[in-house]
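Can anyone check this?
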Amino acid sequence: MCYNSAMRESPGPSPSPSAVKKWVIAARPWAFPASTMPVIFGTVLAVVIGSARFSPLLFLWALATMVVYHAAANMLSDVYDFRHGLDRDVTPVSGAVVRGWLTDRQVFRGAALLFGLATISGLLIAWVAGRSLLVIGAVGLAVGVFYTVLKAHSLGDLAVFLDFGLLGGAGAWVVQTGSFSWLPVFWTVPMAMLVIAILHANNWRDIASDGQRHVKTVAGLLGDKGSLVYYGCLIFGPFVIDLAFIALPRIIGGRLHPMPWTFLLVLLALPNAFNLWGRAVRRASPRQPMDFVILDGATANHNLVFGLLSIAAVILEGFLRWR
């Protein structure tokens, strides 16, 4: 659940920083927007669409719990990759194990501690917000703990789709409303697809090295050309889905809640998507040497922009309702 750039630094342990910085690096905070965006999105949905009374305390509590959980998952993934020889070269966003700042055993213990803290925190939130949060939290925790196993069996994409998308949005809704709804699950799908795109860009770049170590990823199964098609679906699909959620309920009627027209704001991110697509298409002869190598990082930035625009769309809808 951590997304690495492949820019290689000089091998060997880096100069040892302070203990605090070591653990911050181990947690990989630059990846947190992938998990926090759905929480913020689900919260504003609950207030604007679900008419919930906003609880700042519960929101910050849930957000902090997600950050702790994500840090634990990042650390556990770092340990797995190091122990299995998948991550031995130091990169600008490498964890503390690869850099030689912390041992894999130390980071494993740190991950276990953070998983424990996130679990206790989640149980307390569920006690306050509602029992339906227990199911969401239990599934999310199981996916996080067994992520390394899922990743080894080509299920890493599904894992991040659930944990850093659907479950985060649904859980945030429950925290504010006290009840479950499918609306945040469906409306978070576009953002969740972009989280998969981040992971896929990383795995696509590493097809050759993963294959040598017998690591199965969706990118490895699809091959280079299939991965291009898959990536295109992941970065352009969110726009199509949002437009469908806006238009179809208004056309076919029924009980489906249409997305507000304000979600057309996400189209402002379309140029970013085309830029990413150009990088992917020109992967064999990039305009800049690192264009494809750091495609995962560029996709993460696009995910952040798309997420912020989605959140802004909900807030704008609320403003238009309440003025």
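Reply from J.R.: I decoded it. Residues 5-14 have pLDDT under 50 and may be disordered.
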